Amino acid sequence: MTITRRDLAKAAGVAAGLSLSGATMAQSDNTSPSTSPVMPIRLSGDGIGLQPLAYTELLNKLCKETDVEPDNYLLGGEVEKFEQYCAGVLGKEMAVFIPSGTLANQLALRELAGTKRRVIVPGLSHVYNDTGDASQNLANLNLIPLAQDRATFTLEEVESIIARTEGGRVTAEVGAILIESPVRRLRGEMVDWDETKGILDYARERDIGTHLDGARLFIASAYTGITPAQYSAPFDTVYVSLWKCFNSNVGAILAGPRSKLENMFHTRRMFGGNLFHGWPSALVAKHYMEGFTDRLRSAVEISETFYSAIKDIPSVQLTRVVNGTNLAGITLDGVDIAEMRRRLAELNIMIGQPNADDRITLSVNETWNQTTGELLADAFARSLA
């Protein structure tokens, strides 16, 4: 059987499965929604890969469907409506739009720590590795990394740090604890939830603030059935990215108690995060956030069928992450990868480049809903020949 674009498109109803119309479909560099009614099936990335034309067409469509109320420096209008929506989804009193996740995490830790400047963070976290020591340089926080090679640090490790801090000759208390889950540097591995809840209970007893870096929190929900609100509940504050899964061009949401966030707009402005308008990002992010977990769960089922079908191909070594989410790795033996990628692209299937170890990372996202696991596996197998 030869798999064609028509076969892949017919498999799952395309636009209905993704809540997208022709005007909102992503397109490759050489096509447009008018010439290609099917968006690429992307085997990489958390989002659907909206290209500039598709993004602007979607925004135009949403503006025609909505009586848009612009915000003024991120206050009022569509941004405020979206903040209220996110607060409800995350089960928090209040939510604040922040231009980036890097800033959202930093402002949360700064607020939670207060005058207690030590903050416990995962050694593999984004905050510790990818922000240029922003928390140290801009917020005067002292980050204490734990679990340098794993997703979850233990309650025993936290207790040890607290005991050492309390036993020092100069008082330097721990004011906050950050948890990141899923962990990007461990290919989407989630933390041990039971161990984490024990840490959160311990922190609460000692009046230590807790923050969840949940950039990809909604992905975790699709894999575990634990809702974003349930994940967020034990934490004081939580951050969620607006571009990774929800295809916005910019933005993050920071949610938590009103007592911590009601004046956050002042701090946001002080740190240079006061955009003149945020309503375009709010509209697009809300469009994709609604129903996202259910749509991704459907894509996950398709991916499991696909993985089961390709794991026995002799030239394919499939690596899954224990307690993982939407990322997997494949290593190909004796395969012309450039030719494989070309053949898949002819079927509107886009796969990433191999890394330095010749491993290709596969990422499950909503675009997988355009096909079935069987059809995708057959197309993949034929691309290797």
Keywords:
2 domains, alpha/beta, Aspartate Aminotransferase, domain 1, three-stranded antiparallel β-sheet, seven-stranded mixed β-sheet, 42% helix, Aspartate Aminotransferase, domain 2, 385 residues, globular, 17 helices
- In total, the number of strands is 12
Shape: globular
Indicate the mean pLDDT: 91
Span between termini: 14 Å
Structural overview:
The protein has 385 residues and is α/β, with parallel strands linked by helices. Helices cover 42% and strands 15% of the residues. The chain folds into 2 domains: 5-63 and 293-384, Alpha-Beta Complex (Aspartate Aminotransferase, domain 1); 71-276, Type I PLP-dependent aspartate aminotransferase-like (Major domain) (Aspartate Aminotransferase, domain 2). The chain has helices at 5-10, 15-18, 52-65, 77-90, 101-113, 126-129, 134-139, 155-166, 193-205, 217-224, 228-232, 258-261, 264-270, 279-289, 292-310, 337-346, 373-384, and strands at residues 41-42, 94-98, 118-122, 142-146, 174-180, 209-213, 237-241, 252-256, 316-320, 327-332, 349-350, 359-363. Strand 5, helix 9 (193-205) and strand 6 (209-213) form a beta-alpha-beta unit. Mean pLDDT is 91; it is low at 9-37.
Task: Describe how the helices and strands are arranged.
Elements: H1 5-10, H2 15-18, E1 41-42, H3 52-65, H4 77-90, E2 94-98, H5 101-113, E3 118-122, H6 126-129, H7 134-139, E4 142-146, H8 155-166, E5 174-180, H9 193-205, E6 209-213, H10 217-224, H11 228-232, E7 237-241, E8 252-256, H12 258-261, H13 264-270, H14 279-289, H15 292-310, E9 316-320, E10 327-332, H16 337-346, E11 349-350, E12 359-363, H17 373-384
Parallel strand pairs: 1-11, 3-4, 3-5, 5-6, 6-7
Antiparallel strand pairs: 2-8, 7-8, 9-10, 10-12
